[in-house]
Design a protein that fits this description.
Elements lengths: L1 H8 L2 H18 L18 H23 L7 H17 L18 H8 L5 E8 L4 E8 L10 E7 L6 H4 L4 H11 L2 H12 L1
Antiparallel strand pairs: 1-2, 1-3
Helix pairs in contact: 3-4
């Protein structure tokens, strides 16, 4: 009731804006997500076969996300599938275009990347992330269990490193996790991370 009275006192321009936003949200709720294509060159340590199978897994997350959106009742597995889709899109974007160096002038150079690598060796499956928090305007490193447990509310992923076994075991074996992390940084296109930060902080 209080919202209705406030809306009645709103200007025609504001009412039009609110109605447009509501219509956009309703349209978005019916939109299907599409599998993105990634142009990934030959990588150090990570085989083409691993990337091929990994991309198939990503496509499965997109498929499952769309199917869950169509269900009449909410399924608690939705955050797992949705974040699995989004996390992989960030991850694969880092491998496109070939490696590029992290320059001293980069805003990402201030982070403790050795701390990040140590965080990546957390036992269990999940992701090690760098987020940008638009409220405090700072970069934050964090671990995410599975695909969704530990995602930081309101923060935007800048860098995502997949630490599920499927991302490295075929090439490195379980004992090679540390070398996989080192090779990821050798393959990393830092421009993709800087672009993510630029968009997040704009």
């Amino acid at each position: 009731m209080r919202y209705t009275k406030r809306l009645a006192r709103a200007s025609p321009r504001r009412i039009y804006f609110l109605q447009s936003i509501s219509f956009s949200i309703i349209k978005a709720m019916t939109k299907q997500f599409e599998v993105k294509n990634f142009s990934i060159p030959k990588l150090k340590g990570i085989s083409e076969g691993t990337i091929e199978e990994h991309l198939k897994l990503y496509a499965g997350y997109v498929k499952n996300t769309n199917e869950l959106l169509e269900e009449k009742e909410y399924n608690r597995r939705f955050p797992f599938e949705f974040n699995g889709m989004r996390n992989h899109e960030v991850y694969f974007s880092h491998l496109e275009g070939g490696p590029s160096p992290l320059t001293p002038q980069s805003p990402l150079a201030v982070l403790d990347w050795e701390k990040f690598k140590t965080l990546a060796l957390t036992r269990g499956v999940g992701w090690v992330m760098v987020y940008y928090d638009p409220l405090s305007k700072q970069l934050i490193q964090s671990w995410v269990d599975e695909q969704h447990l530990g995602q930081l509310s309101g923060c935007i992923p800048i860098l995502a490193l997949d630490m599920w076994e499927h991302s490295f075991v075929a090439d490195y074996k379980p004992s090679g996790k540390k070398q996989y992390v080192e090779d990821f940084f050798e393959n990393l296109n830092w421009h993709s991370c800087e672009e993510n930060l630029l968009k997040a902080s704009s």
